[in-house]
Amino acid sequence: MNIAIVGGGWAGIAAAVALAGKADITLFEAGRALGGRARKIERTDARTLDNGQHILLGAYRETLGLMQKIGVAPEAHLRRLPLRIQDASGFCLSLPRLPHPLNLFWGLLTARKTGWREKLAAARWMRTLKARRFAVPPEIDGGVAQWLDAAGQNGVLRRHLWEPLCLAALNTPARYACPRVFAHVLRESLGNPARGATDLLLPRGTLSDLLPEPAGKWLGERGVRIRPQERVHVLRPRADRWQIVSGGGAEIFDRVILAVAPWHLPPLLAELPNAPAIPQDAEPIATLYYDYPENIALPYPLLALCGEHGGWLADRGQGVLAAVLSGHGAWEELTDSALASALHHDICAWFFHPVALPPYQIIREKRATFSCRPHLVRCPQTLSWPGLFIAGDHTLPDYPATLESAVRSGQNSARMLEERPD
Ligand SMILES: Cc1cc2nc3c(=O)[nH]c(=O)nc-3n(C[C@H](O)[C@H](O)[C@H](O)COP(=O)(O)OP(=O)(O)OC[C@H]3O[C@@H](n4cnc5c(N)ncnc54)[C@H](O)[C@@H]3O)c2cc1C
Predict the structure, then answer these.
(1) Which residues line ligand 1 (CB under 6 A)?
(2) CA of 221 to the centre of ligand 1 (A)
(3) Could you list the pLDDT tens digit for every one of the 422 residues in the chain?
(4) pTM for the full predicted model
(5) Among candidates 1, 8, 26, 2, which has minimal Cα distance to 213?
(6) Pocket mutation for ligand 1, best pick of 260, 378, 413 (most atoms within 8 Å of C-beta)
(7) What is the rounded distance in angstroms from the CA atom of residue 31 to the CA atom of residue 13?
(8) DSSP codes of every residue in 118-156
(9) CA 357, 363, 364, 369 torsion-angle sign
């Protein structure tokens, strides 16, 4: 059997690893290298950075398992930190290494800059959620903000914990983010009894070191043909097989997995009758890399920014700080230099003595992830045509766009392909 996998992001890689050695596999990738939206980029000053600062969680079970499968030791490449949400307002919530749910309740009760009443209300809300298996009440029809209102979560914890967590996890502002997906995120993180599930994992090197580069080598050794810089233009049904038309010509495959972002799917499906409508709303992310003097370091490797634009600040070592702004917001209207100056001003004022604006680089991903809104209809992983499967971070109904959802979707598509011999 010959299989085409279109898209060499984390979903396509996960599918290829699952199927390697079981079939004749060709992996088409439009870009120069594997990795898609989570990969390294070369800079003119020879330093290597990522297309965007990424944070993984201890709960990313399948992603960490995939790394291990291809011979990458997660602990060697990821710095593991207990969850701590801390910002310049003095707010700090830190989860101790205690068994679940003691860690969560202790973290809530010892949180700084918030009162007892609020802490108890939040602890009670989490307990109720858990008892209801994180089901959102059916009357909640709007965004996460409506759900927080209904749950009485309106104070400091809302502003400094729930809303930033929602924005970071769903890349969608709480006022219109999907409560059901946020509830799922809470279940998998704060509500997850697995040891270390809430830990933050920060890449020590680049994202390409974690999976795309070693996976490329691993796949090549197992006979998978990787064809970089080869965009697939369209897919055509041919009897019970598929014709793929790419920059390299037209070829026939028995099975196809499309592992591309939602905005790259419509042209590929253009010649199929009754192709499903794929939601196209996207949210942006900007990553601002600052090259501060090497002796500059943050008080904790990951801090929340509590200024006008929100966001997070990660310490990449050697004076390199990465500020991340997620989701649609007023920051999109600012020029690069205005944005860089505004955040630099806040960072200095909050975290260390003032220094001059250092060299910086801004990467704006206009379509970083799909917009995770209520009632969003996801693209199913199997369509009405046999032998065609869809993977990608947008396909799993309960998940936001993350590395973990991409990997899980890729593994699912491989499993479905093996289970459906037609
Ligand atoms: C700036 C930024 C920050 C993020 N931060 C986090 C984070 O902190 N934590 C987290 O878990 N997730 C984060 N994410 C989300 C995460 O990166 C994505 O969910 C994940 O990488 C998506 O993987 P994918 O394989 O589904 O899609 P993609 O990465 O989009 O892969 C699809 C691949 O298909 C290729 N392709 C497209 N069309 C064609 C075609 N016609 N022919 C051939 N190839 C094609 C593309 O070039 C691409 O390589 C972030 C994303 C961005 C952009």
Answers:
(1) 6-12, 28-31, 36-38, 52, 54-56, 231-232, 259-261, 264, 268, 285, 287, 365, 368-369, 392-393, 401-404, 406
(2) 24
(3) 999 999 999 999 999 999 999 999 999 999 999 999 999 997 766 677 899 999 999 999 999 999 999 999 999 999 999 999 998 888 999 998 888 889 999 999 999 999 999 999 999 999 999 999 999 999 999 999 999 999 999 999 999 999 999 999 999 999 999 999 999 999 999 999 988 999 999 999 999 999 999 999 999 999 999 999 999 999 999 988 999 999 989 999 999 999 999 999 999 999 998 888 899 999 999 999 999 999 989 989 999 988 888 899 999 988 999 999 999 999 999 999 999 999 999 898 888 788 899 999 999 999 999 999 999 999 999 988 889 999 999 999 999 999 999 999 999 999 999 997 65
(4) 0.96
(5) 8
(6) 260
(7) 14
(8) HHHHHHHHHHHHHHTTTPPPTT--S-HHHHHHHTT--SH
(9) negative
Pairing of strands 225-227, 360-370: unpaired
Q: Report the nearest-CA residue for atom 35 of ligand 1.
A: 7
Nearest CA to ligand 1 atom 53: 368
